[in-house]
Amino acid sequence: MTMRRVTIWKRTLIACAVALAAAPAHANIACVGVVNYLAVNSYGSVYLDIGSGIWAVCSITSALTSSGVTIAPETCRAWYATFLAA
After folding, report:
1. Are 57 and 78 in contact (CB under 8 A)?
2. Which distant-in-sequence residues (6+ apart) come within 8 Å of 36 by Cβ?
3. What confidence tens digit (pLDDT) does each residue in 37-49 have?
4. Residues 69-82: pLDDT tens digits?
5. Which of 15, 58, 68, 80 has the largest CB neighbor count within 10 A?
6. Number of domains the chain is built from
């Protein structure tokens, strides 16, 4: 291999590695159902029930980490607005 081919191959390999490492950040989450219950408590926790029980889904005041996933308050506020519109 020439030096140019090795450099291109290395760059391609690095680009693929970065793309694969970033793939989990692009995960999609889907919810289906009617919102039966939606509430925010005095601490900012948002609770939602779409038929499978009431779940604390996020916090509008502080970051919430669950199962290695952190949800920022800004994201939670956007979700809450979406839940209200449902």
Report:
1. no
2. 49, 50, 51
3. 999 999 999 999 8
4. 899 999 999 989 98
5. 58
6. 1
